[in-house]
Amino acid sequence: MPLIAMRGITKRFGALVACDAVDLAVAAGTLHAIMGENGAGKTTLMRLLYGYYAPDAGEIYLRGKRVQFRTPADAIAHHIGMVSQHYSIIPELSALDNLILGAEPTRFGGWLDRRTAQAKAEQLADALQFQPDWSRPAAELSVAARQKLEILKLLWRDAEILILDEPTAMLSPRDVDALFETLLRLKAQGRTILLVTHKLNEAMRYADFVTVLRGGRKVADAPIAELDAPTLTRWIVGDDGASLETPSSRFPLQVRGTDAPPTDGTAPARFPAQSEEAFASTQFHAQSGEAFAPTRFPAQSGEAFTPTRFPSRSGGNLKEGGLESCLVIRDLYVASERGGWGVQGLNLTVQAGEIVGIAGVDGSGQLELMEALAGLRPIARGEILLLGQPMHRWSTARRIQTGVRYLFDDRFRRMMAPQWSVLENAILGAQRDPELQTLGWLKPRAIRQRAEQLIERFQVKVPALRAPILQLSGGNQQRLVIARALYGKPRLLIAYAPTRGLDIRGAQATYAAIRDACQHGMGALVIAFDLDELMEHCDRIAVLFKGTIAAAFAREAFSREAIGAAMVGATLQEATP
After folding, report:
1. Are strands 355-359 and 540-545 parallel, antiparallel or unpaired?
2. Each residue of 67-95: pLDDT tens digit?
3. Could you tell me the CA-to-CA distances from 510 to 376, 385, 388, 473 in Å, in that order?
4. Which residues, 6+ apart, have CB-to-CB distance to 173 below 8 Å?
5. Contacts of 226 (CB under 8 A, 6+ apart)
6. pTM score
């Protein structure tokens, strides 16, 4: 008898069927992988098990008894816990307060028993080889430490069934290994782990069983020992996996200033039609993007801005190795909110037409560098040049207007407005584009065409253009913001973990689109923790260590061992026993 049995589970969101009569059986004490492309229904199925959603049809059995979870509290009472893609850590609270929040131990009179809480926390943490400073704000924890704290929160509540949704999306290779060592220890203690992942190597190496969803339906399940990677890939993508189509081959980069619809003259068919009248009934202003009662005010209500005229590509710009230097960073110093320097003495050049990767252990200065390049964190010293023009004093809006595009690792905080519609999010940051507005008034028809082009280009699955983007799966949210960033003819892309939450096809499509844009003159700086990803797609890799570039590698010199050694501040000879 399985520990968990989900039978005929169906869940709809409007016209979108997220799960369609799905069956799932999970044996006790196993690590069971749930796989599939973005929008396949993986996270929805796990949220149904966790009580976050109620199924429209179907039944859930736990240890042979039928259960109904109306809320996550019901699931927690049955010893089920879930860690989502976006952590529930409250940065301002201490690590200990985050751990016990909602399940605080008390003593006589209802007073919080903090001493007992810390003693139990330390005991649980020791089992995970995790020793944080319990009194420090959680904001100071690394990504890997936050992941462990989330798992500890489940153990604090006596979870016997742990659901982890894409837990390694933001971890370095070393932290991934450490996480799975933790999960295997928990499995050895008798706990059952459900792992939602896109990564074949994780499933093949660590899982006992795998269930594959496609289009909301279960297409296969089997013990991992009976599978090979090509078979699993074929189940996930629905073909032989050898000809994964890329968006650039189907839908060329749209040249800024055109409002042409898709080439076949039709709107994408994967969402219900919506009348222009329905969309036009709500007015949005180009600067704020907020709905408002019609009141006229000028388009440029923010910082005054005069477009910078760059020298032509035929000459006049900074050059390095005979190519145009798109981005030049010189002797850059950026303070860290933890004290000291997040970035110190950093020098880097990105040439037009190339993809430069930044590798490094989490906490080596990636966030400070990204925020400085985006104008969100002041620089203490140094300069940042875009095509020879100093941009380090420009606002973020001005950088975007002059052709810089950004992809942040945290799409919820930095890349989208979760409660806004797909339409609104499709133009977020681009609302000042001349083809989308006139004198500050947005043009509904042009916005709809832009949204349709982005959706078609990256095959984003949406229930409706007016649906809140929150209704999309995490992978489809990421597809939309990537398509938005690469629209038109950007000069420079700065991307932090651009494939976070993307499936195999989506990750390949993302880098194909970045490469296509680079072939049209863009330069790309990609910060990522997946070293294999950087080695596959980048022309050069620079290693960030303690806020500076410790080593740089041309493609012909790529070595996983040498780059890995540089990531921890060692040479290959020092790292080799």
Report:
1. parallel
2. 999 999 999 999 999 988 766 788 889 98
3. 25, 26, 28, 17
4. 529, 530, 531, 564
5. none
6. 0.66
